[in-house]
Each structure stands twice: as C-alpha cells, then as structure tokens.
Design brief:
The complex is a heterodimer of chains A (about 325) and B (about 250). Chain A has about 325 residues and is an alpha+beta fold. Chain A folds into two domains: about 180 residues, no CATH class; about 80 residues, no CATH class. In chain A, about 70% of the residues lie in helices and about 5% in strands. Chain A has ten helices and four strands, in the order ααβαβαβαβααααα. A four-stranded antiparallel β-sheet of chain A has the order 2-3-1-4. In chain A, helix 3 runs antiparallel to helix 5. Chain A is elongated and about 105 Å long. Chain A starts with a helix and ends with a helix. By secondary structure, chain B is α/β, with parallel strands linked by helices. Helices cover about 35% and strands about 25% of the residues of chain B. In chain B, the strands form two sheets. In chain B, strands 6-7-8-3-9-10 form a six-stranded mixed β-sheet, with helices on both faces. In chain B, helix 5 packs across helix 6 and helix 5 runs parallel beside helix 7. Chain B is globular, with a radius of gyration of 18 Å. The chains are: A alpha+beta (about 325), B alpha/beta (about 250). At the A-B interface, helix 1 and helix 7 of A face helix 1, helix 4, helix 5, helix 6 and helix 8 of B.
Chain lengths: ~325, ~250
C-alpha cells in the first residue's frame, strides 16, 4: 500500500494548492478573549490619550497665560482728595513710558474703567460718584529683560500719591501652581490607566496561556524552546496591543479634532470666549497628535513585551 | 521505490551499521529501577529496568491502565520519575538543562494517542511544525513536507484543518509530524487505535520502513493482531506496574 502511495509521488512543489495557508500564527489569532482585550486596550488607550491631550492643552494654555501676563504690568492710580485724577494718571503713564523696557503705557479712560466694573455692578448705573481708580496697562518690549520694578515703584510713589504697581507675580504664581497641579493630576491618572491596562494584559496573557495549554505542550514536545514559544505569544499580544492601541489613539485624535472644530464654531459666543481663555482653542498641535500616536504605538509594544515576559516566566516555572 | 522511501525518511548511513557493532553503539534509552507514583498514592510503575538500543523495534503492551502512556511520557521527559535512573542518548536526565531537554526532544518523534494536532493550523502546517519551531524558513522545508504528506496519502488534504480530517487521516498527519524530523527514536502511543485493520497494516509497514532506515521505534499498543504482524519485534509487557521483556 505504502509503496503504491510512494509511486504516485510528485515532488514538484508548484502543485501546492493556492489556498494552502503556510504561515498561520501558532497562537490562534482570533478568540473572544482576544477581541475583549482589544476593546479594553482601546478604551484604556483612549483614556490615557485624552488625559495626556488635556494635560498638554492646559499646560499650553497656562504657558500662554503666563507669557502674556508676564509681559504686562498694571499701574493703579487711586483718586485722592484735591488732585486731578486724569493728570495724575497721565503723569504716572509718562514716568512708566520713560523706562526703556516698556513698549507702551496706555491709560484706561474713565469709561473703560467703569466698563471693567460692569460684570460686578451691572449695566446702566451712574458710576460718576464712585471713586473709581484709573488703570494704566503697561506692555513690556518682547524679548527685553524685566525692568527694575522696585526703582520704578519708588519713582511712581514719590511723584504720584495713591499709586500702586502690580507686576502680577502673585497671580502668575497661583496660575503656575494651578496649571502644574492639573498636569500632575493628569500624570497620575495617566499612570493609573497604564497600570490598570498592565493588569488587564497580565490577566489576559495568563488566560491565553491557560486556554492554549495544549498548544504549549505540543510545541514543547516537538522541540520548541521557551524563547520561541514566548515570542509567539509576544507576536500575538503585540498584534492585539497594536490593534487596541491604534483604535484608542485614533478615537482620541478624532475626539480632539472634533472638540477643536466645535470650539472654533463656538468661539464667537461669550461662553466660548471664556472657555478659550481658560483652555485655549482645544486644538492640539501636530506634536500633540504625534504624542497620542506614540502612546498608542507604545501601548501596543508594551503589551507585546509584557506578555512575552509573563509567558517566559510561566514556562520557566512549569519546568 | 523502497530506496526512495529510505531516502525520504532517514539517512541510509544509519541502516548500514553492522548488527555486531550495535552493542557498542550508545543506547538510546536506559531505565534502571525507575519508579513513579502520583502524589502519595501507590507506585504505578515499579522497578522498571530496560534499554532501547539504536535501530531496535519494540512493542510496549499491556492492559489498559497498565502505564504504557506514562512510560512513554517518562521517556519524553514530560514526567519525572519518583525514583530510579534514566538515561537518554547517554545523558543522565537529572543533569539536563532546559535547552538540553529541548535538544533531546528534537531527536525524538512522538505520535500521541489523541494525535494532538493544532486545530487552527492546516495539515501541512501541523506536519511542518517541528521544523518551524527549529527556526527554519518555510521555503527550506516545503518540498520535504509536501513529499511526506503525499507519501502518507495526505497529498490532497494538506490544506485542510484537522477537525475536518477523519480519524485515520489525523493519525497519518500525526505520524508524518513525528517523522518529518527524521527522529532517532520514535514513540507511538496506540498509533493504530483509530484506524481500520487495513490502514493499521499500512501504518505498521511505515514504522517498519522507518526502523529499517535506522530509527529506534517504540509502539505502545494492546492490539495483539498488530504485534503478530512483526515477529522480529521485541515485546515490553507492562503489568501490575512492572515491566517484562520478551526478546
């Protein structure tokens, strides 16, 4: 019988069936657990990317606030009995304007100063009887070193009674603390998400090993090294990780794009203005999108490497 | 045709070793007073002492539950004995490192009673598995896998997944997987248990051809009819945990 079969031997390999699969992964590619893991990784990546993106937006907006505010000084001239407030304000503006680092010193008019009080006092009131101080907004030259503020303050106080100078240092410090706190909280959330995902991947890897115990046994008996088996599992989980990470990152990028588009559309409204003042335009720059893509790819690769390490250790313990 | 088969299965050099020199050739397997128990239970194998010589052919037989599969698993290093001494290819198995165990397993072909084919791989991929795990590229072994598949009569079934194969086809695929590495020792656990007598005779002839080409063959079976077809084979009979040898 056997020789009859041997008689029919056709050594030509060209006759291989076209539909013959020859490179299927040794760890089955599709399973319910695998699909569930892709979804978990996608959600975790999405959350991690949202957190990172939000932190980047806030850090960027905070940097913008700090830069713009640190280039401004406010001089306040309070009304004092028997003195002309307009003249005093102009005198203070002249003193400040003479400083070489100052680009512009603009005195707010009475109407402008009263307008600033409207959010607190409402509109339609006659504020003429109120002692409303006058403000001078001083803009510093771009790139110039900060002026000698103590000397400027002294010069102002000596010549203009009731004047005060605010370089926004306290406000800047508070702003910095707030922004840094938000970034730290975002980093903690990001770390927690990554840790939770690591646990999910570890459980999934152990589950996959238990589910594929038969395959591992067969691979051992046909002469596979632990390293080879671990690499096969790494390839399997790398694929799942990249699929999940890619999906999550793509969703996060789409979310930021949508948020940017909505905020642009909404920017004309008063509430949109306030939101933009706080958080910027909700538009990530290319670096932000690159960071999100990097997070997605990294999560995929970390998933693969981690599962390889777990499998390797498990196989070592088995022996 | 026979020479074709010999060429296919193994090098003719090994079959050319004169019988009188075989005693000097290192033994493939050596068991001395080996015992095995699971947990605190009674010993299921007791004082097992035997050797498997190169190019030898033996049936391992005994009633169901006598420990045939367990003995094969000991040879395959899938189990550790509770006591006794085991040597494989002249190496004391207790001194083997992990990588050396893998190297020894690559010298052993095994046909499991339940085939243990991977259901998500095609018949072709299952047969090629031992070569693939060695790190060989698919193009380097394609021809020999196809040739072996055709030789065992699975040339038209190489693209099929195991769940679609009949019992006999699975059996032949499992045998082809064991033969593809041209092993020095072949362990087959009830290789004819799922096939009709006609195919059983055909498979036995396959093992005999393999033996002639230089491989030591151990076939675990309780099929007396099968054993009677090869009178020259040694019989290792397991009973009550002990091994009796009939040369």
């Amino acid at each position: 019988m056997m020789t009859e079969t041997a008689d029919t031997l056709e050594p030509s390999v060209e006759a291989l069936p076209a539909r013959l699969k020859r490179d299927m992964p040794l760890v089955p590619a599709s399973s319910i657990a695998g699909r569930a893991l892709i979804i978990v990784i996608a959600i975790m990546t999405f959350l991690a990317a949202l957190t990172a993106g939000a932190a980047m937006l806030i850090a960027g907006a905070s940097q913008g606030w700090r830069e713009s505010v640190s280039r401004e000084i406010t001089v306040q001239v309070r009304p004092t009995p028997g003195r002309d407030l307009e003249a005093e304000a102009q005198k203070a503006a002249d003193i400040v304007g003479a400083v070489p680092e100052v680009a512009e010193a603009r005195v707010f008019t009475k109407a402008e100063s009263e307008h600033l009080l409207e959010p607190w006092l409402g509109t339609g009131l006659d504020l003429g009887e109120l002692p409303v101080p006058r403000l001078i907004v001083v803009k510093l030259k771009e790139g110039a070193p900060p002026p000698d503020l103590p000397a400027l303050r002294k010069a102002l106080v000596d010549k203009v009674p009731g004047v005060s100078l605010d370089d926004h240092r306290q406000w800047l410090a508070r702003l910095g603390v707030m922004a840094n706190t938000i970034v730290v909280v975002a980093a903690v959330i990001f770390a927690l998400v990554i840790i939770a995902m690591a646990f999910a991947v570890a459980f999934a890897t152990r589950g996959a090993m238990a589910g594929n115990r038969e395959i591992i046994d067969v691979l051992h008996f046909v002469g596979a090294e632990d390293r080879y088996i671990a690499s096969e599992f790494r390839r399997h989980f790398l694929r799942l990780g990249l699929e999940g990470g890619g999906l999550g990152a793509a969703l996060a990028i789409a979310t930021f794009m949508l948020a940017g588009a909505v905020s642009s559309w909404w920017a004309a409204t008063p509430s949109g203005d306030q939101l933009e003042a706080l958080f910027g335009s909700f538009l990530l720059n290319w670096r932000g999108y690159a960071v999100i893509a990097f997070i997605g790819a990294s999560i995929g690769m970390v998933t693969g490497s981690m599962s390889r390490a777990i499998v390797f250790r498990h196989l070592h313990n088995l022996s | 045709m026979a020479s074709q088969i010999v060429d296919l299965i193994g090098s003719a050099d090994r079959s050319m070793v004169p019988p009188q020199l075989s005693a000097k050739v290192p033994q493939v397997v050596r068991f001395e007073n080996v015992g095995l128990r699971y947990g605190m239970g009674a010993e299921i194998l007791r004082d097992i002492t035997f050797a498997i010589e190169p190019q030898s052919f033996q049936f391992l037989t005994g009633p169901s539950g006598a420990g045939k599969t367990t003995l094969l698993r000991l040879i395959l290093l899938a189990l550790k004995p509770t006591r006794g001494f085991i040597k494989l290819f002249e190496r004391d198995v207790t001194t083997l490192r992990k990588g050396e165990i893998t190297a020894i397993r690559r010298r052993i072909g095994v046909v499991f009673q339940d085939f243990r084919l991977l259901d998500h791989l095609t018949t072709y991929e299952n047969v090629a598995l031992p070569l693939r795990v060695m790190g060989r590229g698919e193009t380097t072994y394609r021809a020999e896998v196809v040739e072996l598949l055709r030789w065992v009569g699975l040339g038209e079934r190489m693209h099929v997944l195991p769940p679609v194969l009949s019992g006999g086809e699975k059996q032949r695929a499992a045998i082809a997987r064991a033969l593809i590495v041209r092993p020095e020792l072949l362990l087959a656990d009830e290789p004819t248990g799922n096939v009709d007598p006609h195919l059983a005779r055909r498979l036995l002839r396959l093992f005999i051809e393999l033996h002639k080409s230089g491989t030591s063959v151990v076939i675990a079976t309780h099929d007396l009819g099968l054993m009677d077809q090869f009178e020259g084979a040694r019989r290792l009979v397991l009973g009550d945990g002990r091994l009796h040898i009939y040369d």
